[in-house]
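Minutes, project check-in
Item: structure for the 164-residue chain
Input as provided by the requester:
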Amino acid sequence: MEYLIQAIPWWKDFRLPDVTKTIILNSAQMAGYTWAWVPLATPAPKQMQRNATIMRFNIETGEKEIYASGMRNPFDIAFHPLTGELFATDNGRDDLGLGAPQEELNLIIQNGDYGFPNCWDSQDAPGCEGTIPAVAFFEPHSSADGLDFYTGTQFPNEYQNNAL
């Protein structure tokens, strides 16, 4: 067996019963990205500071860092094919009833705080100053589970490089 990448974050490293185990590689940055979710609607304990985050790791050394925080369940991430910007879907809290919060599409900014657990939707509640709102919303609890950008040729040009 040959290891292509060593020391990548995985479930025992996060001390969670389960996390998304997908890794997105960005060869231009020589970096990989993965994410960890909070299994319930509750905030992550301080000793689990990597929960509700997107992490980046160096492909060569495995060195890890929290790239962005404040997303309960960043279910999928993708890089825009032209700009290289990183986007993520986020499935919000489950304890606020059927009408809130909305699921989100976020433009991920390094060191950005997206507000979980106390800020969602318009993020205009006290204490939400400085958090980054979503660029698009989906129905509450609809589970925005995938993300990709269309780069094919079968559909009209207006679909090119748009999120699916």
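Outcome recorded: The domain at 1-164 is CATH 2.120.10.30 (Neuraminidase).
No further action items on this chain.
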